[in-house]
């Protein structure tokens, strides 16, 4: 059973205050800079986490980006991690708005934006809403390359909540095991980071937010608007990934039919005005965890 202490974020966590739907919300974020941060032409890389994660799992990516001379900004989205978890009408538009306000508060006008999984959907929406801010876009195994409404049965918030409130450390781990072709002990820390919420006295509300944000993914596709993204875009795709949001609700036939990342990525690349596709063979849903060396090389080459 889970008894571990809180995971340790790799850099100091700061807080940004914002009002969303008339509710005061604190957004937690890490802002890491190279030691020689006097440079005025220093570029900022912003990293958006996935749904079952928070800023913690970017720690190794942050380290190599800072070493390479970048300022690195890693927010926990409202509803996740160290940020407040209010009940809101969550949308990719609202989260993009909040991220834009965070950037404005730090006087950052241009970013390189990296989004993984759900963070890829958010990064896509952000790039459509604030094209002037995004110089380059990286989508790492983003979900939402297909429209889940077309083949995943609809569930109400109540049904989704019933599922979320029953979560255990073991159920989180079982889900995360599906992200990798082979499980390794060092992946356990990312289950621990997600499972912190289970110990919170506010877990019933967190479970409800988890249900609402699942529905956000289901109801708010980005895959019909790739042509709106003007920034040069890199798709980094672990070819063994078969993630489908709502996969447990599908027949075996549909499980094999959908979530085909290599094919989906190629189709998406054709629809993006200015895109490169890099495939990572033998890698699942999280290239930056499973094959950090290759991810680092590809990312730095594209950013520089």
Shape: globular
Instruction: State the end-to-end distance.
Output: 44 Å
Q: Characterize the quaternary organization of these chains.
A: single chain
Q: Which stretches are low in confidence, meaning pLDDT under 50 for 5 or more residues running? A: none
Number of strand segments: 8
Count of DSSP-assigned helices: 11
Structural class: alpha/beta
User: In sequence order, what are the helices and strands, one letter per element?
Assistant: EEEHEHEHEHHHHEHHEHH
What is the helix content?
25-40%
The pLDDT mean sits at: 95
| Relative strand content | 15-25%
Q: How are the strands of the biggest sheet laid out side by side?
A: 1-2-4-3-5-6-7-8
Main sheet makeup? 8 strands, mixed
As a whole number of angstroms, the C-alpha radius of gyration is 18 Å
Question: Can you describe this structure?
Answer:
With 304 residues, the chain is an alpha/beta fold. 37% of the residues lie in helices and 17% in strands. The protein has eleven helices and eight strands. It has an eight-stranded mixed sheet, sandwiched between helices. The longest helix has 17 residues, at 203-219. It is globular.
Provide a compact summary of the structure.
The chain has 304 residues and is of the alpha/beta class.
Give the arrangement of secondary structure elements:
Blueprint: E1 13-20, E2 23-32, E3 44-48, H1 59-67, E4 71-75, H2 92-105, E5 111-116, H3 118-129, E6 134-140, H4 157-165, H5 169-177, H6 188-195, H7 203-219, E7 233-238, H8 252-257, H9 261-271, E8 275-280, H10 287-290, H11 292-303
Parallel strand pairs: 3-4, 3-5, 5-6, 6-7, 7-8
Antiparallel strand pairs: 1-2, 2-4
């Amino acid at each position: 059973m889970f008894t571990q202490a809180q995971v340790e974020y790799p850099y100091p966590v700061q807080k940004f205050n914002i009002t969303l739907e008339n509710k005061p919300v604190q957004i937690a974020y890490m802002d890491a800079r190279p030691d020689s941060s006097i440079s005025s032409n220093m570029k900022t890389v912003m990293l958006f986490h996935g749904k079952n994660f928070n800023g913690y799992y970017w720690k190794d990516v942050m380290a190599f980006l800072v070493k390479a001379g970048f300022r690195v900004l890693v927010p926990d989205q409202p509803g996740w991690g160290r940020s407040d978890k209010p009940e809101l009408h969550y949308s990719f538009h609202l989260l993009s708005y909040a991220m834009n306000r965070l950037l404005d508060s730090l006087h950052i006008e241009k970013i390189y934006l990296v989004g993984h999984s759900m963070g890829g959907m958010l990064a896509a929406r952000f790039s459509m809403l604030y094209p002037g801010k995004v110089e380059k876009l990286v989508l790492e195994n983003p979900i939402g390359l297909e429209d889940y409404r077309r083949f995943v049965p609809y569930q109400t918030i109540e049904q989704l909540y019933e599922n979320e409130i029953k979560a255990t450390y073991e159920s989180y781990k079982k889900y995360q095991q599906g992200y990798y072709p082979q499980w390794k002990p060092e992946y356990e820390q990312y289950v621990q980071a997600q499972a912190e919420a289970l110990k919170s006295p506010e877990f019933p509300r967190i479970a409800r937010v988890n249900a609402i944000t699942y529905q956000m993914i289901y109801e708010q596709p980005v895959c019909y608007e790739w042509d709106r993204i003007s920034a040069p875009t890199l798709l980094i795709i672990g070819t063994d990934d078969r993630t489908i949001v709502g996969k447990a609700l599908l027949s075996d036939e549909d499980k094999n039919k959908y979530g085909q990342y290599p094919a989906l990525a190629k189709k998406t690349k054709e629809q993006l005005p200015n895109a490169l596709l890099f495939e990572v063979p033998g890698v699942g849903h999280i290239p930056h965890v499973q094959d950090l060396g290759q991810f680092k090389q590809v990312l730095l080459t594209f950013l520089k």
